[in-house]
Specification:
The structure holds two protein chains of two kinds. Chain A is an alpha/beta fold. Chain A is 29% helix and 20% strand. Chain A starts with a helix and ends with a helix. Chain B has a twelve-stranded antiparallel β-barrel. Chain B has a two-stranded antiparallel sheet with strand order 2-3. In chain B, strand 4 and strand 5 form a beta hairpin. The two termini of chain B are 24 Å apart. The chains are: A alpha/beta, B mainly beta. Chains A and B meet through helix 1 and helix 2 of A and strand 1, strand 2, strand 4, strand 5 and strand 6 of B.
């Protein structure tokens, strides 16, 4: 056997072994999250090396051994356990996850690490939650608010979000759901503790954004022409809550940026987080539209919704004093759920999904123009929040009048009266 | 190894160890099935052990050394040492530039030693570099080499890599007739990183060289090469 053939065999065997190893869950990874810190080390810019295998780009993780060694020294010096790492080339950092022993104050560990000159910065691992309320109802019994108030079928004659890359940073999406088959262009798992799985929250969000239109079943996504990146950074817990953390979300954001997402949907909220702020800054600087759900329980709507430049989405059935919100349907939303089924969901998570779908429609009309908060017309006085027709027509003035009558917005008061 | 090469290697190693706590010092030991540089074999189609030591300073300065077994025309079973240094700087997220220089020494065959300077740009998945050597492998006139490198991750550990290079070089010494002065080379490969192990399988193609070049390169201009390395 030639050396090349032998190496190919070893290479394939090792890849298989790695795949197998990744599917093993790490049982206590989530339990100890409250003791975890993120430690960022400098990732040098790529440069010349004579090694024959070096390709000279950011995604080539050459030199990782040096950073791993520094991380191991830091962990040992501060009495921490080194758990994992992930290079984030868009920020020029290599992110390491370390865990403090029980009883050690995490803030003091963060302060000590941040003072080390080898560390770019350190931060506590923050926890985030998906913003849904109640459980999924079945069977599907109501029409879609997006159809009733936004007239999406008429809008689809003008815009479907064709080929717009929408990153759904959430729990796992059921990519082979009959209403989503073919809509998911990329699927990645960033949760080390469990393998990729079809989960409720991610599948519901994905369906609202881009469920297939005109296939005779289920629902119609707001932007059925969009291509989804199903980035699993959150996981479903035993109480059916959906949780994520700084590290999993950071990895997914980094991936979305590397793969040229045009719209990033984050139907989740939590505390302010340095790593995520910096990644969102890069996304906004690149003209990526970032949509996040407002958490009514957190000051200012929580992070990332309250972060400048992020489009904050709230439910049209919720009272909120937060300025500059984009209001969208968030109650009794029929959408896709795992098992090839459909159900009703509630919460600002799904308002964010509607806004991301609308952002994809606008991005499809003008791919090189970033979608901003000011591109959305309407408000809480309208049923469904966004005046979808005005929003789309403003983006395509040559089509004015085409759907002005059919898309007439409904006032919230009138909509409520009809329901009563 | 001659005393001169040994002294240079030792000096380089001592310099690395004076880097301080902020240094990122990595070493990669590898074996390649055929040491090909710019499309031609420097190991006469035979496997070669290689060692790279690289130092990165947080401010962007870098330097390193690379050693490989080589087998050149008239200089058999020798060792090449390439020392390099430069500066790489992040211009904006995902975009950087670099400038640097390298010097190539040979255990035997000092006439082939050459220095080269280069500038380059790199994005997340692409990089380009332009290199100039006044006396590439001892040639009388200057050689210019332009290259484009691409990198497409398939998953956490597997990447497709591509390289396209074009060398503009003077005619070999002692050749009276005009010879082609441009030679292109192509590399398409699959890189697998598993923890600290680095594996590569690549297909290489290069335009036929002139027989008077210093490389022995008895093999085909198109070939498969593979390598296995460990970074520590």
């Amino acid at each position: 056997m030639r050396f090349a053939d032998l190496l190919l065999a070893v290479l394939l065997a090792c890849t298989a072994a790695r795949t197998s190893a990744q599917s093993q869950p790490v049982p206590d990874a989530q339990v100890a999250e409250g003791r975890q810190v993120l430690v960022m080390l400098h990732l040098p810019a790529p440069h010349f090396r004579p090694d024959s295998g070096y390709s000279g780009a950011y995604t080539d993780n050459t030199g990782h051994g040096a950073r791993r060694r520094i991380a191991a020294e830091l962990a040992q010096h501060h009495g921490l356990t080194l758990l994992s790492d992930w290079p984030m080339p868009v920020l020029g950092i290599d992110c390491y996850v370390m865990q403090a022993p029980p009883g050690v104050a995490r803030q003091s560990v963060v302060a000590q690490l941040a003072a080390d000159p080898r560390v770019e910065w350190a931060q506590p691992m923050a926890s985030f939650s998906a913003l849904e309320s109640g459980s999924v109802r079945d069977p599907l019994y109501a029409t879609q608010p997006a159809a009733k108030f936004w007239h999406i079928a008429e809008l689809h004659a003008h815009a479907t979000g064709s080929r717009v890359q929408v990153a759904v940073i959430d729990s796992g999406v059921e990519s082979d759901h009959p209403d989503l088959a073919g809509q998911v262009a990329l699927q990645e798992n960033f949760v080390d503790a469990s393998p990729y799985a079809a989960e409720k929250h991610g599948t519901a969000v994905a369906g609202i954004i881009a469920a297939k239109a005109g296939n005779g079943i289920g629902i119609e996504g707001v932007a059925p022409g969009a291509h989804l990146m199903a980035l699993r950074a959150c996981w479903e817990e035993a109480d059916h809550g959906t949780r994520c953390n700084s590290f999993t979300l950071g990895k997914a954001l980094n991936f979305a940026l590397l793969h040229k997402a045009q719209v990033i949907n984050m139907s989740l909220g939590g505390p302010s987080d340095i790593l995520m702020k910096r990644l969102v800054d890069v996304a906004l600087a690149r003209g990526v539209t970032v949509v996040a759900a407002v958490d009514p329980q957190l000051p200012g709507g929580g992070f990332p919704a309250a972060y400048p430049g992020v489009i904050a989405a709230a439910s049209d059935h919720a009272q909120s004093s937060i300025p500059a919100l984009v209001v969208a349907p968030g109650q009794d939303i029929p959408t896709t759920v795992p098992g090839g089924r459909w159900g009703l969901v509630n919460g600002t998570s799904f308002s964010a999904a509607h806004v991301s779908g609308m952002a994809a429609l606008l991005a499809g009309l003008h791919p090189n123009v970033p979608v901003k908060r000011s591109d959305f017309f309407g408000g809480s006085a309208l049923a469904g929040g966004i005046d979808a027709c005005a929003t789309v027509l403003h983006a395509m003035p040559h089509a004015a009048g085409d759907c002005a009558c059919a898309c007439a917005p409904v006032l919230s008061s009138k909509a409520n009266k009809t329901t009563e | 190894m001659t005393p001169a090469v040994a002294r240079r290697s030792l000096a380089l190693l001592m310099l690395f160890h004076c880097g301080g706590a902020l240094a990122q010092l990595s070493t990669t030991a590898s074996i390649v099935s055929d040491y090909r540089a710019r499309g031609v074999s420097l190991s006469d189609g035979q496997p070669a052990p290689q060692l790279t030591i690289n130092y990165d300073h947080p401010q962007g300065w870098y330097l390193g050394g690379f050693a490989s077994r080589v087998n050149l025309r008239g200089v058999e079973d020798s060792t090449q040492l390439v020392t390099y240094a430069g500066y790489a700087h992040l211009l904006s997220p995902g975009l950087s530039w670099e400038a640097g220089a390298s010097k190539s020494f040979f255990q035997r065959g000092a006439k082939y030693e050459y220095a080269e300077s280069f500038i380059g740009l790199a994005t997340e998945n692409l990089s380009g570099r332009l290199s100039y050597a006044p006396h590439y492998f001892g040639k009388k006139d200057g050689s210019l080499y332009g290259e484009l490198n691409g990198n497409a991750p398939l998953n956490d550990s597997v990447r497709l890599v591509a390289h396209l290079g074009l060398l503009h070089s003077p005619s070999p010494q002692g050749i009276a007739l005009p010879t082609p002065t441009y030679r292109a080379d192509l590399r398409l490969g699959l890189n697998v990183d598993i923890d600290s192990w680095k594996l590569q399988l690549a297909w290489l193609a290069a335009q036929k060289k002139h027989p008077a070049y210093v490389y022995r390169d008895g093999g085909s201009p198109q070939t498969w090469v593979s390598s296995i390395g460990y970074e520590f």
